[in-house]
Amino acid sequence: MVYQRGQIPQSIDETAEMLSAGNYLAARSLATVLFLSLRMKRPLFLEGEAGVGKTEIAKVLAASLDRPLIRLQCYEGLDIASAVYEWNYPAQMLEIRLAEASGTTDRGRIEADIFSERYLIRRPVLQALSSPDGRAPIFLIDELDRTDEAFEAFLLEVLSDFQVTVPELGTIRAAEPPIVIITTNRTREVHDALKRRCLYHWVDYPAAAQELEIIRRKVPRCNEVLSRQVVAYVQKLRALDLFKNPGVAETIDWATALTELDRVALDPETVSDTLGTLLKYQDDIARIDGAEGRKLLDDVKSALAAAG
Has this prediction a pTM greater than 0.85? Predict the structure, then answer.
């Protein structure tokens, strides 16, 4: 069957086709776990190094299924007010003053009014549980490992029952559970209780052939010789003991930068001038911007010439 845009895929092959149509080249193992996540209506927990394309999966999924993408970007100190909801306090205070000015003395009525839906500010979690058009959104919980264990514990209720309790309003449940994608760069371990509620997949760096095809799709102006050299160079870099290996995002940025500079092949000077688009730490740049980098480039060109 051919995948129909906007529809939940009905097979692993359709899932792989859906991702490919969104210019995301996925291994069959990833297509399989994504298909199962959609069919079983279970959150998908994606783990891997930064820059390997975990967040992009949620973006492609939202575009392919024609669903809104709601993103909760996690960070240290993330709290309920920022992630779930908060009350519009200035508007509530204004309402109280207007009620007092009009002579209203019924405190119960005032309280019921100011703690109503119109004063509720919905943050990403509550937005994800609200789908008025009947089409559940894609809910991306990005870089969960940046938060603390207290926030993880709160998410258990959300991922177990897809509901949130607002003391003043009661329990708000999702009419249709959102499609949840959770990502982590594994800077710390996420608790097993949360992982058990999800299907799991480790997103690894792509193999050379797959990364080359990504460059062909994402940077079509990059000529074939340069594309092969870029991919081979990055693949060799990842085999070194760098502080931070370049991800796929950096490979795409480097190929784009070289194309903008009208380069048709790599040379030592060009590599040195553009390392900042590929490596993000000075120690890594200093190590490659020298004899080791030139030797790496020579090895790349020799290997590609031998391969024909």
Answer: yes
Show me where the domains of the chain are located.
12-84+123-202, 85-117, 208-307
The two three-digit tokens of residue 244, written as one number? 């931070």
Q: Which residues contact 84 (CB under 8 A, 6 or more apart)?
A: 123, 124, 125, 126, 154, 164
Tell me if 192 sits within 8 A of 154, measured CB to CB. no
Kindly list the distances between the CA atom of residue 98 and the CA atoms of 94, 114, 116, 255, 288, in Å, as whole numbers in the listed order: 6, 12, 16, 60, 67
In angstroms, the CA 194 to CA 63 distance is 27
Question: What's the CATH architecture for 12-84+123-202?
Answer: 3-Layer(aba) Sandwich (3.40)
Neighbours of 242 (CB within 10 A): 16
Report, in angstroms and rounded to the nearest whole number, the Rg of the chain calculated over CA atoms. 24
Mean of the per-residue pLDDT values for the chain?
91
Q: Determine contact, residues 54/208, Cβ cutoff 8 Å.
A: no
135: confidence class by pLDDT, cuts 50, 70, 90:
confident
CA-to-CA distance for 205 and 230, rounded, in angstroms?
15
Q: Which amino acid is at 162?
A: F
The pLDDT tens digits for 274-290 are: 999 999 999 999 999 88
Which run of H or of E encompasses 52? none
Placement of tokens 């299907």 in the chain? 199
The per-residue pLDDT for range 243-284, each reduced to its tens digit, is 999 999 999 999 999 999 999 999 999 999 999 999 999 999
